[in-house]
Structures are given as C-alpha cells and as structure tokens.
Amino acid sequence: MTSRPTDTTPSDTSGEATRSVTLIAGTAILALLVGTLLGWLVFADSTPGDDSVEAGFARDMTEHHAQAVEMSLQVIHTTDDQDIRTLATDIASTQGNQMGQMEGWIRTWDLPMAASGERMAWMADVEGYDDHSMAEHHATGAMMPGMATPAQMEELRSLEGEAADILYLQLMTTHHIAGIDMAQAALDAGVEDEVQRLSAAMVNGQEAEIALMTDMLHARDAQTLEESGEDADH
C-alpha cells in the first residue's frame, strides 16, 4: 500500500511561512540578549574603541546581514519549493541570530550603531585585503560589496515561483562571497575572543551555503552571476 503525498495548499504554505518568520524573530531577540550578556563577560577588561576593527566589523556585518534576512523572508513567502524555503529559513535564522549577537556587543561597548566614517574603512589596513576583489562585487547603488541594489531588491519582490527562487540564489551567492571576504578580513586583522569565533563561523557556514546554492542553481538550469560573467549590477 503506497501512501499519498501530502498536498501543500496555499493555507499550509502561508502558515509555514508565518511560523518561520516568528521563529526567526524570536531567535534574533534571544541572540541580542545573549550577545549583550557575553559582551559583558568577554569584553569586560578590554572594550574595543569606536575606530577598532571589532567595532567596524560588527557594524558593517550587521547591516550586511540585515539585507540577507530581508531577501530570505521575501522568498519564504513566495516560493513553492520546500528546499528553497528551508535554505532561506536557515539563512534568515542564522544571520538574524548573528545580528543579535553583534548588536549586543556594540551595546556592551557603549558605541553607536552607526559609524561616523565610511563603511568598511576598517578593512583598508588589513594585511592581504584585496580592494579590487571587493570592488568586483560592489554594484552601483548598493551600500556595500555583495549587497543587492534597490532595483535588484524590487525585482526580487516582483517575481514569484522559480524565477524568484533563481534570483534569490544568485543574489545570495554574491552576498555571501563578499560577506566571507569581510569576515576573513576580521580574522586576518587578529580579532580575538567572540569576534574571532563568530567570524570563523561565518566563513565556514557561508562557504558551505555557496556550494549548496550553486548546486541548486545548476539543478534549475541556471548559473551564479559569477559563473555567467555578469557584473555586480546584474
């Protein structure tokens, strides 16, 4: 006797998306509290300054992550593909959690969330930093390398089904490539303690997700923007 596949009705899909968003929001709030507590414990004897690598990394990566969460929440609501929904939920949950931790650190350091200087200025003095490589992923109009432009975000919001899935995978792959470069720069700069641990987790986790997203694109007869030779502006 064979079992019948479970139908996924629009109501089921909407309910699952709502549960995913609720879980992600709860995780981010918990991470903010934990990040603040760990900040008190770990950085009590040496608080990073306003122009430190630690502060620059935490601020810029928080902003970078915010767009990844936004893109993921968008596709969770539009996709009919369970694999895409699972990936997007994992990315939104992980990066929302990491955002909470970094915001908690900044609060503990008694620093403003917004930097007074340019974004990513802290990377300029990191040995081995490749400004040209980052520039390749800096689309005109995007706030930082790897981030989607307003036009790309609007395109993602306008699409549904597989077209939206493919664009999401492409934009998120580029997003991850630049995110890894930023996290690796923090490691190369010699950050310590929780900042080092979180940076290393970002590099490892996002490298694995890039491999997965590349395979998912190929399975859909599509390529990453990097494979297709398209520039950052898509």
UniProtKB/TrEMBL annotation:
The chain crosses the membrane at residues 21-43. Residues 54-217 form the DUF305 domain. It holds the Pfam family DUF305. It comes from the Bacteria. The keyword Zinc does not apply. Keywords: Membrane, Transmembrane, Transmembrane helix. This is DUF305 domain-containing protein.
